[in-house]
Amino acid sequence: MDSLSPAITPKLVLPAKGAHSSHGLSGLVLPISRPRLNRFKKIGVHAINKAPAAAAAIDYSDPDWKSKFQKEFESRFNIPHITDVFEDAVPMPSTFCLRMRSPTEEFADGYPSDEKWHGYINNNDRVLLKVIHYSSPTSAGAECIDPDCTWVEQWVHRAGPREKIYFKPEEVKAAIVTCGGLCPGLNDVIRQIVITLEIYGVKKIVGIPFGYRGFSDKELNEMLLSRKVVQNIHLSGGSLLGVSRGGPTISELVDSMEERGINMLFVLGGNGTHAGANAIHQECRKRRLKVAVVGVPKTIDNDILLMDKTFGFDTAVEEAQRAINSAYIEAHSAYHGIGVVKLMGRSSGYIAMHASLASGQIDICLIPEVPFHLHGPHGVLRHLKYLLETKGSAVVCVAEGAGQNFLQRTNATDASGNIVLGDIGVHIQQETKKYFKEIGIPADVKYIDPTYMIRACRANASDGILCTVLGQNAVHGAFAGYSGITVGICNTHYVYLPIPEVISYPRVVDPNSRMWHRCLTSTGQPDFV
Ligand SMILES: Nc1ncnc2c1ncn2[C@@H]1O[C@H](COP(=O)(O)OP(=O)(O)O)[C@@H](O)[C@H]1O
Ligand SMILES: O=P(O)(O)OC[C@H]1O[C@](O)(COP(=O)(O)O)[C@@H](O)[C@@H]1O
Ligand SMILES: [Mg+2]
């Protein structure tokens, strides 16, 4: 009998301050570990969307618990601002205006302030983070704060251009860095950041080559960026600047920023990159540097908390359709054909779930969040036999992080410290072949691993728009004087969030969510336990 992989609790979406693994170590925020994540499973149902520290802190018999919670929430989601450190920093009227002016214009005579354009965001504008009023903790996917699932408004900061800015464009040296693995849309975001910076009037814009490594590797030169350089880069996938994992220490990195005179840093990456960005922001504060560090979440895995989705995810799901369709055609055209498609998703099965749903061609979807047996009466292989007998063919979609308990653990990590996973796709292919051979039923098993093809492609139209808005908002956030923030889309509105809140652990598929249930309805698969 197979051993089941550890289930991941799905509803921990709002850890309280002090519950992060981050606090203490000079502001370094570490993504939460799996053992720590499993510990959260033990907390009660009403506490499912908060870390234990917060759950314990709320006394629901206190008639004021709700307003206290909201106050605490407001302070957690407060976005750090330059004036937290430089109290007498003087704002100036924004140089960003929809009435276009030449980016080469000098502002020696002051900044335009008398325009009647009402396109600015007020600093007090907020976006509602949660929009469902669950009336019971047993409602599918319920995220409740108290045992009665009381409605509690949770507001976060609205993104966009502010009327007052805290950086003089001619004094800005802005840098962009892309870290981690590739993701469709990186070039679109770079392009929009550069274009928007130029509209503010910034002339010194550079790209740091190959991720954080580019700050320390003397062989690598920064790349001068302008609208002209980036004009067409979104037409191809990848990153103009290159990506990498690993790199220098935070202290070395900030030394390098100081040497280069960088005072605006745009960081495009996933949880790891954002942990780095937050540490850079903290280090800059410690050194009293007037620097804005702003993240743009990048991950095809869609594993960043609180956001509707991250850029590149949509494109990845769309691109996965080609692989799934090929697997389906192969399986369907063969006598007793079985197609196996592996998609990315280290700890989150979003791509596999959405790609399965979109295709309507998947019979079995396996994700890291939902434990399964391969062998035995309720195992995947027995179901495949049933599918061959009843349908004549079958297609399996498996996320790379699923079923890791079946594979040899190596403890190997990549340069960023991420665990190197075993190949679950190959394992399922081999076990399937072995199983059908043993029971004497012919089966024609075809394995497709399109993972790198999926993330290297160009962003689709929907991601292109998302990248555009996120890139522009990143620049607006920096000019508004915010630092240690990231941009995101929440309930279709664009927001600024403090970095620690979005990376305290990877966002995962909730096995009790309507979406996972829809996926099961679509595939028709049973529980494999
Ligand atoms: N906890 C951390 N603190 C500081 N930097 C980190 C941390 N985790 C990862 N990094 C750095 O962030 C970069 C990207 O991280 P990685 O995990 O590979 O990709 P991603 O950002 O997509 O999750 C790497 O250069 C890595 O060294
Ligand atoms: O082979 P690489 O470059 O390490 O990338 C593989 C990883 O890329 C991802 O798709 C995305 O990871 P990142 O968000 O860390 O870039 C993971 O699911 C996968 O494990
Ligand atoms: Mg990551």
Query: What level of helicity do the residues show?
Result: 25-40%
Quaternary organisation of the protein chains: single chain
Rg, Cα atoms, Å = 24 Å
Mean pLDDT, to the nearest integer, reads: 88
Sheet/helix structural class: alpha/beta
Please, how many helices? 15
The level 1 CATH classification of the largest domain is Alpha Beta
Distance between the termini: 10 Å
Biggest pleated sheet: 9 strands, mixed
- The succession of helices and strands, N to C, reads HHHEEEEEHEEHHEHEHEHEHEHEHHEEHH
Bound molecules: adenosine-5'-diphosphate, 1,6-di-O-phosphono-beta-D-fructofuranose, magnesium ion
Indicate the CATH topology of the largest domain: Rossmann fold
Number of domain units: 2
Major β-sheet strand ordering: 2-3-15-14-9-8-5-6-7
Low-confidence stretches: 1-56
Based on Cα principal axes, name the global outline.
Answer: globular
What's the β-strand tally? 15
Please tag this protein with its features.
binds magnesium ion; disordered N terminus; about 525 residues; alpha/beta; 2 domains; binds adenosine-5'-diphosphate; Rossmann fold; nine-stranded mixed sheet
